[in-house]
Design goal:
homodimer; about 900 residues; alpha/beta; eight-stranded mixed beta sheet; eight-stranded parallel β-barrel; about 15% strand
């Protein structure tokens, strides 16, 4: 028979799949002898069974829970539901992956009228007990029964108004007694039943409710964003209550063993005296920094510091811990590997290697490659920050430089962001409901809450810039205004800038600049480079991009889209003339003008990337993409090139395509207009000749796009080779160059053995290959892909991450076929998945030699490639 | 060393690859002892070598030709170039496949001033000799030197005007002597050199010219149309001249051993006395029917008849023969299997089986499946023909009922036809230059020429309706008018109708009706059905099409495109309402209206096809295809459904797709709007229930289109199964139905093993599969495919004939994968290639069980499937 319940002492940290992260770590800590309130974990398998059983707890499972509850009673010497010596418990979720705040919790279970009446022995505790009881009633109605808390909260507000008491702290025991009675009435009113006095019912219902919360909207959205599978389910932890809000000798806090923002090796966190844990995380009251605990409760501080160090050494990673002090005694409620900024992740990884706690390989596996992205985002220009007065100061909760229009509600922000606006979410405090809005935001600004508030934790996890607890500002969420100390009023849509590294808020959008790579980051990336065997190139065509790519460690250019060179104002004109030509002669004369630009471009690119290879893709998009769209543009063009508007309009109509993605593009252009390929070849070879004569070593690789048949390839290759030979003879020089093709049409994968006979390299264009293999275009698929995710038909976006079974299989077929005839064929990937870590792992596995991605993603790809190499070694 | 020249006695009929069709048959007939003028053949390999040698004859080849010329001299007792006893020869092309009139011929080689002067011994022959000489000069200038004949012809016309002589026959020996002298002057004028007096030069140059004519425009176009490979080349036949224009005891003719139009077993042909062969084929003079030869030259007639019978028995097929009578002696110049109409092809095949000459299998292989198409084309309605007076009578040269606008020049007709107009080509007589125009024409009408004229032969080969020698009509090609006996004037663009079975021409466009299948055709198709193992279904959704399909022998419907049922006026409205719905409720209410139509449709389809299967494809095209396109239509719709124009316009804009082929369509619609699939299921199951209750057996197969992932399939299948179960419960009936999918997305082929687990059938949608595998859309590919053909990158249209290596390979992968998990999976093809004979051969090979094609193509597919089965048996 399956075992669905584990006492904390029965588990350990390696059982997170079964016990969830929280449960596994509570077990581990229990066995380490740390002060952990006793409890047990109902497993994730129980949750899966619950869903299989049509949202019912089986009889056996109920019995197993109650059996373990009895063990807990014995251990604590308290009895659940007993009026004399009651055991009170919390019920908390805990899944395999951390999903902070996404699922539900019920506290104070075990209270009922009888227990409460007996407990009220001392006037001192009366107020606390009623407060706990009314919280249980409200939470139960909300979490178990599914009604919003509003009615309760409104009643509480009205009660305070009526009794003229400003805050909860002003309410005394009688007030709470009265409120509790009224909460029970409200409970009956909205649920149509009495609040359950049977603690066992309370417990079992609460466990089911937490199981259900696995599928609330927030949790689903969070999972989708973080690629967490739907079918994992959550474990549930049942644990004896300890109270940070018992008295002034009590408190609760959250702390990291190192600074999660910068990575500094220092205890970092905050606490609130006389408060429950929820109060710290929710950001309702601004808490004290942990350092001040050293003064107020030195013993507790030292004990906690020791535990933190011990846990860090035990887990070999920075820990994020929750603790509660109940009447002067410290309890640890949770530990986990702490979420951290990219900056911090790298510093901690490097420091842990230096401290001898982990190996370089382990360090490399510690950092999520995508997080590196955050490090590469621009910062505000120094001079502009120095010369701009800030309008407010808050806590530097998550670094970065974010500018945008302010929005006060997540839904407004999402709407604006979908229209392409850069937006900043401004809230009094954030709550899990804001999660989607935070995802769309450039940055987050909250007025309340500390460094470990919801906003701060989530923003750091997402890599969003965040400033918290900025109480310099007065917010009116209803009116959608923000008032500065100087009385300046900011309205929805106004622009501000947030410096997440300093906590400073500025008006308007400030100019930014590129970051420098140095220090720990540089060392970390060096380790990655030492270990990986996949080469990383970049997609770039401008000198600026090429330079950035090289700075970020690219080993050449894997995709230079020559057509991007034609869109600049002074170049589009001859290009358009070329398209509108009626004769070969006219076309050749326009191409001559273009040739000069191309030649110069290539000279510069060769210079920047020397001696690394550059893969130059020949003209790819359909010609109509270059023609004007509006009447005005047509009029202008007509004037400029002395052609009638009618002629241009006619030509535009001629070139119109029903499915441009599957139209006259790629090598099909070179086949109908060989003179274009000739021009591009002349430009490359002449530029290369010039550079070689200046002793600049280089390695051009000419890539023919959209090949689906060996004859297409050979036809264009013949043009290239003939033209190159002529230019080389004229220049009296020999230039080594390769000719290869992009594999992006399904047919090319099937006939790779034919194509590979004469090709020197393949570069998989996974964007188009994905589109054609699935038979949907990226532009149009958005109309139905959401339905696909909702209905769990697709678990991931096939354009973001390689579809291993389908598109990936075709790639494998292509490689297998190609290797039969050409063992030295160079194999690369130049689709956007070339910079996506999971895809990189796959590409490594199937024998790809390099990936090419956007310059910004080069460091991500370097790290992902290192991780892929480490995993491959492990699996051998 | 290769042998490039074969004397006729050295060859035989099986050497057509080497000697060409004409050469191989001349050799065969020589060895049969028939009266064949002596000669030799320069092989097709020589032609290929000529092209490889940059259009030069090698020294060795020249020597080999001259060596054989000497043997010919010995055989004939005549000497080439000798003034006393000159050998005169013809040089004619002859490729592996018959390409009538496409390549060049030079006659009378061996004549020069010296020979001619000596030959003119009798006044009687003088006229003939000059005429032959001037023809040689003109032909040589034209064929060898490449100048048009015009200048010569114009001179001849002017000479006749000047001398007031109406026709060539009025010119006497002195005239021809003078003309010959002038022709030599013209020759020098245009070629800038003297006409060559050296016969060896004449011969070798003529051979090269014939080699070159393999690549003239007409020949290239003909090869492309008939899928004849470029690299075959032509052989050249050098043969002693015999003269049908020597005197009144001479003549020339063309005859078939059976009637090529109807297949009747009767000698069928025509001849002209005192004429050269070219005169008959060119249709310049209207010849006599062969039967009249029986009276005028009974011995010759009997001799020819005997030879024709002998050749037919020898070749076991109907023969097309050319003969010449020189001064009372019969010579056979050519025999080949005769081109014939579909009607005739089938009758002859059936008759030959009856006569015991060939087996049923051989008979089935004798008919080109595509030809059957011609038999199925409609004929004019009896009553309309009976009630319409015809405006002219001509020869019924090629059967069929053709109506259209008249054009007098091929290029005008091609232009009109490309605009979508149905057109009739009207010419005094056609010549090889008209070949492309004839291809585009619905029918051909010539004023001159007989049953074996160029127009008649080519039209029959192409399956075009043709009326020849319609000299009731007066034509003015320059003015583009046609005048009837009654003085009615028809101008370019006016409409006429041609009945190719009666030779009658009507004014205006007459209504047509379907043909009946019976007699020989029925028996022939029965043989095909006995032998084939591939089932043939039809693509049909209307009752009319379904009925026609069943009449033509379809074994069910292989593709019922349900969306085609929505385009009718009264149905498009609720469909549009459905698309424009804002809520699920609105959508459901519109679907309810549609449901009623669908249900009735299916009832009728079940009735028509019972008990055969119907594969019903669920809604496939993107929704925007159903919405109005013009402002006017939008206004109307707005009024009809009480929605503002803006709303409709907005929705149209919302639904617009960049690449509709790769957009929101196929099963993607059923996933976003499950209610559509529900409605379609209800309609099918309810209709089926009703029919079964009426004892109509049926077999519905529900096809989910555009599946690329097993989960897509399962999701929609679940909707179908759930809905069907509900309806069946309500109707209290059990209905057997299958659920399968169309395989048309490359990913589906790769993941076929997953999809086949729950699918009951696969139907390959080769249209879309081809588009996505190649990555080009049919609509857009026309812009570059011509370049691909010109540059020999593609040898065939991949949409017409299956691409075996690419698309076909994916099909094989899919079948292999699917069979691993599902041995009973039904496999079909429902793309247009399902009716293409070569593709059918491939489908048979890879294990497809049925093909589905348009109703008209069903008989073609039946025959092609029989041929595929015969070939498979042979290859075993």
């Amino acid at each position: 028979m399956a075992k669905y319940v584990y006492l904390f002492q029965e588990g350990n940290k390696d059982m997170r799949e079964l016990l969830g992260g929280k449960g596994a770590n509570l077990a581990e800590m229990t066995n380490l002898g740390l002060p952990i309130p006793s409890g047990f974990t109902v497993t994730t398998e129980a949750c899966q069974k619950y869903y299989r059983d049509h949202s019912e707890l089986s009889k056996e499972m109920e019995e197993e829970i109650l059996k373990n509850l009895h063990i807990l009673e014995e251990k604590t010497g308290k009895i659940f539901g007993d009026a004399q010596n009651p055991l009170l418990v919390s019920v908390r979720s805990g899944s395999r992956a951390s999903m902070p705040g996404m699922m539900d919790t019920v506290l104070n279970l075990g209270l009922n009228d009888e227990v409460v009446n007996k407990l009220i022995k001392t006037k001192e505790k009366e107020r606390f007990i009623y407060d706990s009881y009314r919280r249980l009633i409200m939470m139960y109605a909300n979490v178990v029964k599914g009604y919003p808390k509003e009615k309760f909260e409104r009643f509480l507000d009205e009660y305070k108004t009526k009794t003229k008491k400003a805050t909860d702290l002003d309410l005394n025991a009688e007030d709470w007694c009265q409120i509790t009675a009224d909460f029970k009435k409200i409970y009956k009113e909205i649920t149509n039943e009495e609040f359950p006095m049977n603690p066992t019912v309370q417990l079992l219902e609460a466990i089911k409710a937490v199981f259900r919360s696995w599928n609330n909207e927030r949790a689903i959205y969070y999972r989708k964003m973080n690629n967490i599978p739907e079918d994992w389910g959550t474990a549930v932890n049942v644990q004896e209550m300890v109270y940070g809000n018992l008295n002034e000798q009590s408190g609760t806090g959250v702390a990291f063993s190192r600074n999660p923002s910068t990575g500094e090796n220092e205890l970092y966190g905050e606490y609130l005296m006389n408060a429950q844990g929820e109060d710290v995380v929710a950001g309702v009251r601004t808490p004290q920094p942990i350092s001040s605990l050293e003064q107020s409760m030195p013993n507790i501080y030292q004990e906690f510091k020791k535990i933190a160090k011990m846990l860090e050494e035990h887990y070999k990673d920075m820990q994020d811990m929750e603790f509660t002090i109940e009447n002067g005694k410290l309890y640890i409620l949770q530990t986990r590997n702490g979420k951290r900024t990219a900056l911090s992740a790298i510093k901690i990884a490097v420091d842990l290697v230096k401290e001898g706690l982990i190996t370089k390989e382990e360090a490399l596996l510690r950092v999520e490659p995508n997080q590196i992205n955050d490090l590469l985002h621009p910062t505000f220009k120094k001079e502009s920050i120095e010369n701009t007065p800030c309008i407010a100061n808050g806590l530097a909760a998550s670094p970065g430089a974010a500018s945008g229009h302010i929005y006060f509600h997540a839904h407004d922000l999402i709407a604006a962001s979908k229209k392409g606006e850069k937006a900043i979410l401004v809230r009094l405090e954030t709550s899990p409901e804001d999660i989607e809005g935070m995802h769309y935001a450039e940055g987050i600004l909250t007025i309340r809450g500390g460094m470990t508030s919801h906003a701060a934790v989530v923003a750091r996890g997402m890599g969003r810039t965040c400033i918290c607890g900025c109480n310099d500002l007065l917010i009116d969420e209803a009116k959608k205004t923000l008032i500065t100390k100087d009385g300046m009023i900011l309205k929805e849509g106004d622009t501000i800038s947030l410096d997440g590294s300093t906590g400073k808020v500025y008006k308007d959008i400030l100019p930014t600049e590129e970051v420098n790579i140095s220090g720990d980051f540089e060392m970390f990336m060096k380790w990655a480079d030492e270990i990986r065997n996949l080469k990383i190139r970049a997609n770039a065509e401008t000198i600026q991009d090429a330079k950035m790519a090289m700075k970020y460690g690219a080993e050449g250019i894997g995709l230079c889209r020559t057509e991007h060179m034609f869109f600049a104002k002074e170049r589009i004109l001859p290009f358009r003339k070329m398209i509108l030509s009626n004769t070969l002669e006219e076309r050749k004369s326009s191409l001559k003008e273009i040739l000069e630009f191309q030649e110069k471009d290539f000279e510069q690119l060769f210079l920047v990337t020397s001696p690394n290879p550059i893969v130059i893709r020949y003209l790819d998009p359909p010609l109509h993409e270059f023609l004007p769209k509006t009447t005005l543009e047509i009029q202008e063009l007509a004037k400029e090139i002395h052609v009638t508007e009618e002629e241009i309009t006619k030509r535009i109509a001629d070139l119109k395509e029903i499915n441009p993605m599957m139209g006259h593009r790629g090598c099909r252009l070179a086949i109908t207009y060989p003179e274009i390929a000739q021009m591009q070849t002349i430009a490359i070879i002449k530029a290369a000749a010039k550079m070689i004569k200046q002793n600049v070593p280089l390695s051009p690789e000419i890539m023919i796009p959209l090949v689906g048949d060996e004859k297409e390839f050979s036809y264009v290759k013949a043009i290239i080779d003939t033209t190159a030979k002529e230019v080389m003879q004229k220049e009296n020089i020999k230039i080594e160059y390769k000719v290869g093709t992009m594999i992006e049409v399904p047919r090319a994968t099937i006939l790779a053995d034919e194509i590979a006979k004469s090709a020197e390299f393949f570069s998989f264009g996974t964007n188009d290959l994905t589109q054609m293999t699935y038979g949907f275009s990226r532009d149009d698929a958005s109309k139905f892909l959401n339905s696909y995710y909702d209905k769990k038909i697709f678990l991931q976006d096939p354009f973001t991450r390689i579809d291993e079974k389908g598109v990936g299989k075709l790639m494998e077929i292509a490689i297998h076929q190609a290797h039969k005839v050409n063992k030295t064929l160079e194999l690369g990937v130049c689709g956007e998945q070339g910079g996506e870590p999971n895809s990189i792992q796959f590409f490594q596995k199937i024998g790809i030699q390099y990936v090419s991605c956007s310059p910004y993603r080069v460091p991500i790809a370097r790290l992902a490639a290192a991780q892929a190499a480490i995993c491959e070694k492990k699996n051998k």
